[in-house]
Specification:
2 domains; 7 strands; seven-stranded mixed β-sheet
């Protein structure tokens, strides 16, 4: 809340709505809550929310490892702050690929430099390149940091305080003087290499990115490697 709306997610949500239109069927995995920046989806598309718990935004209780939908059902899939909480991210991404229509879109927002925030249900972190490889069966429309070096430093300070004090709420209070740090975030390779979180926005493909393309993706931050 103190860091404001996820501007990257808001920008991508607006583009996604423009591409799929009001009749577009969008699957939100981990949709028990509306993610930061995702509000436009709920007014501009037909959203179906899945999660492992019931909420006003959950229409289907489902495990993302085995989505209960037919192949080629959705125009887009939105998965925000979820992949770190699943045991097998490649399997989840494979399921996303399966339920998307040809040319379907995906947006994923996943932590990189963040401390554990769901206890026993927090498993994985991704660099930007690792995240791209996870979505190698998709054409890259855009990718980068959702929150950069400043946000990562704020996460680290809060984690340091919580480790010594034993209370995350107290740690948040003690680090209030540093809430301005995310305002220093930028969209550059330097920020992506120390990002608190990374995103991938892509289009379904039947051809995978080649391993040799990954070096170029990092060196040039190419947004459309073969895929």
């Amino acid at each position: 809340m103190l860091q404001g709306e996820n501007k990257v997610a808001a920008r991508v949500a607006a583009d996604l709505v423009r591409r799929v239109g009001p009749a577009g069927q969008v699957l939100v995995i981990g949709g028990g809550e509306i993610g930061s920046g995702a509000a436009a989806l709920y007014t501009g598309c037909q959203v179906l929310g899945t999660d492992i718990y019931a909420s006003p935004h959950t229409q289907v209780l489902a495990d993302a490892h085995d989505l209960p939908f037919l192949d080629a059902t959705f125009d887009a899939v939105w998965i925000q702050a979820v992949l770190e909480h699943v045991l097998d991210p490649p399997r989840v991404v494979s399921e996303i690929h399966r339920v998307l229509k040809p040319e379907g879109l995906v947006f994923a927002d996943t932590p990189f430099l963040q401390h554990v925030h769901e206890g026993a249900y927090d498993f994985t972190r991704y660099t930007l390149s690792g995240h791209r490889w996870l979505f190698r069966h998709f054409v890259c429309l855009d990718a980068g940091a959702t929150s950069g070096a400043g946000a990562a430093l704020l996460w680290a300070l809060r984690g340091f305080a919580a480790a010594h004090i034993g209370s995350r709420n107290v740690a948040r209070a003690l680090t209030l003087p540093f809430i301005w740090l995310p305002w220093l975030d930028g969209r550059s390779q330097r920020h992506e290499d120390v990002a608190a979180g990374v995103f991938f926005y892509g289009r379904r493909s039947d051809v995978a990115v080649e391993p040799r393309d990954m070096v170029g993706f990092y060196q040039n931050r190419s947004r459309s490697p073969k895929g």
